[in-house]
Write a structure and sequence with these properties.
The chain is α/β, with parallel strands linked by helices. 45% of the residues lie in helices and 23% in strands.
Length: 188
C-alpha cells in the first residue's frame, strides 16, 4: 500500500534497500507506528535513534497530521546528516527537531515540563532500561513507549522488558513484528 506522494514513497523505498546497513525498522512496523500515532492523536513524539531518518519520516508524517512535533535523537553525525536531508525531501523537516549526541545525556537534559505523548526507542538495546527510567518522568498518563528489537535482541532488552512488565504503572504487550515491538501504555 502506498501512503504518501510518489517522491516520499521513492525515498522510503531507497531507504528500505539499506535497512540492514542503517538498522531501520521494517515497513510493517513503520506503518503500524504511523497509524497508531494518528489514532492516539499523539502530538509530542520522541524518537531515540534517528539513524538515516526512515522511521522519523513515518513519525513526522503522522505528527504532521495530528498537529504535533517529533523530537529525534541521534549520536552519529553521518546518520543525522542523511536523516536531515531525507526529512527535508519528504516535507517533514518543519515538524521535526533533531538533537545530536548521547541519548542518555540528551534525555537527562530535557526540561522538567517536557511532556511526551508517544516515545519510540530504537537505539542501544542495552540502554533501553535507562531510557525507560528517564522517559517515564516525561510520559503523560495514557502515553505510550514503544521499543523495537525486543525479540531480535531479546537478551539485551530483557532488563527493560522485566522492568516495564513489573511496573504497576504500565500495561505492556509485545507485538510479533519482524524484530518484535514492545508497546507499553502508562496507566497511572
Amino acid at each position: 500500500m502506498k501512503y504518501f506522494d510518489e517522491k516520499t514513497e521513492n525515498i522510503l523505498e531507497s531507504l528500505e534497500a539499506t535497512q540492514k546497513e542503517f538498522w531501520n525498522i521494517s515497513r510493517v512496523t513503520a506503518e503500524f507506528l504511523y497509524n497508531f500515532i494518528k489514532s492516539e492523536n499523539a502530538k509530542n513524539v520522541l524518537e531515540v535513534g534517528t539513524s538515516n531518518g526512515y522511521s522519523g519520516i513515518w513519525l513526522g508524517k503522522a505528527v504532521k497530521e495530528t498537529g504535533g512535533n517529533l523530537t529525534t535523537i541521534e549520536f552519529w553525525d553521518k546518520r543525522l546528516d542523511i536523516a536531515k536531508v531525507n526529512f527535508k525531501e519528504c516535507g517533514v523537516d518543519d515538524v521535526i527537531t533533531t538533537l545530536k549526541g548521547s541519548a542518555l545525556d540528551l534525555l537527562n537534559e530535557l526540561p522538567d515540563d517536557f511532556v511526551i505523548d508517544f516515545a519510540f526507542v530504537d537505539a542501544n538495546k542495552g540502554e533501553y532500561i535507562k531510557y525507560f527510567e528517564i522517559i517515564d518522568k516525561h510520559l503523560r498518563k495514557g502515553g505510550i513507549i514503544a521499543c523495537d528489537n525486543v525479540l531480535s535482541h531479546e537478551a539485551k532488552c530483557k532488563p527493560y522488558i522485566d522492568a516495564i512488565n513489573s511496573n504497576p504503572n504500565y500495561e505492556n504487550v509485545i507485538l510479533p513484528f519482524p524484530a518484535g515491538l514492545s508497546l507499553g501504555r502508562k496507566i497511572k
